[in-house]
Structure formats: structure tokens, C-alpha cells
Specification:
With 491 residues, this protein is mainly α. The chain has a six-stranded mixed sheet with strand order 1-2-3-4-5-6, with helices on one face. β1 and β2 form a beta hairpin. α1 crosses α4 and α5 packs antiparallel against α6. The longest helix is centred in the first third of the chain and has 28 residues. It is elongated and about 110 Å long. Bound molecules: heme C.
Amino acid sequence: MDQLWIFLGRLHPIAVHLPIGIFLLLALVELADRVAPPARLGPGLRTLVLSVGLGAALTAALCGWLLAADGSYDVTLLDRHRWLGLSFSLLTALLFAVRRWPRLYASTLFATIILLGAAGHIGGALTHGENYLRPTVATSRRSVSPDPMQALVFEHVVQPIFEQRCIACHGPTKSNGDLRLDSHTQLAKGGKTGPAIKAGEADASLLVRRAHLPLDAKGHMPPRGKPQLTDDEVALLVWWIEAGAPAGKRVAELSPPPAIAELVASYLGVPRPPPPDRAAMLATAERLERKLGILIRPLTAEGPWLAANARLQFAQFGDAELAELAPISAALHWLDLGETAVTDAGLAALGAMKNLRRLQLDRTALTDAGLTRLSGLTQLELLNLHTTQVTDIGLMALGGLPRLRTLYLWNTRMTPEAVAKFGAQQTNRRAIARWEAEISALGARIRSEQFSANFGEALASPPAMPGPPPPTKPVPASNSSKAAPKVRPDL
Ligand code: HEC
């Protein structure tokens, strides 16, 4: 039955248009009657129109009443709309009653139309938001200066995320949970539970915790069924809160790690450099192969991506040869410099290899100083450092590499303790926790879909769900005289 009420309530936004149409047309015809008398509306027809209109108005009001109980609407607007709508319905009844007294009828009709306009306007604001009709001059992320490092973090990155995902329910029109996210001041005030963010501590911030709840969980924001925050958007919000949630600071002032700098750039719509051209890269690769005596091969059937292997050149391949790879820098995904003569200084050439996924530097003269040259390799996933002089100090330089998942460290001076700590920092615990929650929710769904049948066999383990106990099997008669079954008196 509840479902029926909710359904009827939701008909309101449709049902209101019928009385609106009827009464506007009626007003028009009555007006035409005065101005150009031939457009006469006879008393019989007028009574018919009025009774249909009255019925439609009452139906719409009834549906509206049901909807008010169900929807999450702005309370002040809802209250106004409710009373205006009700007055309108009552006026249509009065109009019906006074239809035979022309002057009274005319003034009542006039009042009805005014009320109709007012109720309709607020109704529109309720469903679409107060600024629906005003074309918004968005604090557009596109209109920002081309250098993402100069963009204002709150105004150009954080605020647009809120505008897109949250303001419909947490803005000037509706402020669910008493929380408004339409300005830094409003945000700082917090909601009914208290502050929504804790500067410097993303994990302790209500806003982040709500966003990280599993989609199915009560309290997940934005609510299920509404457009959700993307992982990138969450990462940007978390970064801003961790940096102290300031207003008015520029991206550069918060010194974002390279991965965040990239997210900011892509969020602001700064175009990424296009991938290098395959044919040109393959041609250059062939030339360099011959010149340097190394192997350079395409990694994929399409695209320009290359794997270069200099290992077998040993001492023949040094810093000068590495520098020669410059024309194919952007196309390199894998690079093997193991056992070559490259030095810390020469690794500066790696700065341009922004797309590098795998890098082998084992058995080279590499030291901690060389590791600092890797800081811009935001795509790097695997790094082989075995048999080099790197220490725990060099490890710190790798902290800004968000995708680094595998390190080869045999025969180095890095300690397992420091590496374990590093690994913990590299792991995106938040994302993993969210995925685990999703997995457990899915597990519950799978279990709820599983069929089981029970033919009364005793179960090896107790059934997971409480249910009727399986019928007990009769104990088979035993031949052993020692354990002679007791004769039951009724046998
Ligand atoms: C469709 C409407 C809707 C959208 C969109 C929405 N919220 Fe909410 N939000 C609510 C409602 C309703 C409540 C109050 C009920 C509750 O606490 O769950 C709420 C409460 C909250 C609260 C708790 C406030 C307090 O102090 O108790 C936070 C924090 C929050 N929302 C954050 C967000 C963020 C961040 C976004 C955007 C990423 C967002 N919400 C988008 C409807 C929405």
C-alpha cells in the first residue's frame, strides 16, 4: 500500500499541468469574451470546464500532499508551495460556487491565476532548483589560465566538483543535513553532525568518510542513484584536505606530487600531449638500433610504444649513448640499462621518458643521487635496482611514484624495515578498503542467490541460516549385545 501512495505522490509533477492548462485556457476564453464577444462561453460549458478543472486541481493537490511526505525537499520552499497550492485548489472551488455572479467570478478567476503562477513558480524551484531558469555563468574549469599550476585549488578544482556532484542537495536551495557546499565559508560551518572536513586529516573528515562508504551503505554520498564522485575526484578532494583545505591558494603553493599535478591538469581540461607517431618512432628506433647496437622493439601491434634493451652493450653504453635516445623518449615503455656504464648524472635523460613503465638499473654505478632523477616517472610500475649502492635514503625519492608496485632490491643497502614502511605508504589503503567492502557486499548477494536442497541427511556442519532442523534418522538397531538397545515400553 505504501508503494501505491509513493506512486500517486510521484504523479504530482505530471498531474499539476492539467489544472494549469484548464484554468489558463478558461481565463483566456473569458477575457476574449469581454474583448471580442463572439467567443462566448455558455453557462453550461462553463460549469463543465469548472468542474473538470476543480477535479484536476484537487487531484493534483492530493498527489502533492503525498509527495511532500516522500521527497527530500527544501523545507521552507516546500511549505510555501504547499499552502499556495492548497489555496489555489480552494479558490477553484470558490470559483465554481460563484460562477453565476459575473463580477465576483471575474475577480476570483483573476486571483486564481495569480496564485497559480506563484505556486507553479515555487514548484519549479522545488524540483529544478531556484536558479533553474537563470543560465549559470559557471565558475568554469575551462576558463582557467592554461597553466594548471596557477589555478586556484578551491575555486577551480574543489568547488566545481561540489557543484557538479553535491550542490543540488547541499546548496542555497536545498541543504540536506544542514550542510551547504556552495562556498568555502558555508563548508567551514559544517552540517548538523558538525564540521564536514578536518583540515589536514582527510580520513577523519566526515565528507571523505561519507564518500568512501560502500555505495549500498546508508549515508554514502552522493546517495545511490545520483551521479557519483570518480576516483580522481576523490583523490583531488583528499589531497586538498590533507594540504589543510585552504581557500584562495594556487595549485603550485600546495606543491602537489606529480600524480596529483597530472590529475589537476586533466581535471582542468588541459589537453595531454598526443602520443608520438608510430611510423616516425619505428623509423627512429631502427636508426638508433643500428647506431648504438642495442635492441629497440615495438611493444604493441598498434601505437608507438617501444621497449629498448641496452644490456648487452655493457661498458659500450654510457651516458652519451643514453642521451641519444632523446628522440624516442616519449615512446619508451620499457628500458633496460642493466649492466651498462650509465651514471647518476646521465640518468637526467630519464626525465623526458614520462611514459616509462619498467626500468632496469641493476649492476650499474647507480647511487641514491641517481634515484632522485626518477621523480617525474609517474607511470613507472617496476624498478630493478639489484646490485647497486642505493640505500634507504634513496628510497624516499621514490615516494612520489604513484604506480610503483615492484622493486628488485637484492644485494643493495636498503633494509627490509624501511622498504616495508615504504610499501605501506605506496598502498592505496582507501581504495582497497572500498573494494573490499564492495566485494563483501557482492559476496552477500551471491549467497542470497544460491540454491540449496535438503533431503534430511544429517549435515556435516550446522546450516548457516536458522531454519527447521532436519528430521532425525532412526537409530539403526545394533547387533552388539554390549550395547543392547533399551526396549521401549510401547514395543
Ligand atoms: C540527492 C541528494 C544528495 C546529494 C547529491 C548529496 N547529498 Fe549529502 N546528504 C543528503 C541528505 C538527504 C543528507 C542528510 C541525511 C544523511 O545524513 O544521510 C546528506 C548529508 C550529508 C552529510 C552529513 C551532514 C551532517 O552534518 O550530518 C555530508 C558530509 C554530505 N551529505 C556530503 C555530501 C557530498 C560531499 C556530496 C557530493 C559529493 C553530497 N553529499 C551529495 C543528500 C545528498
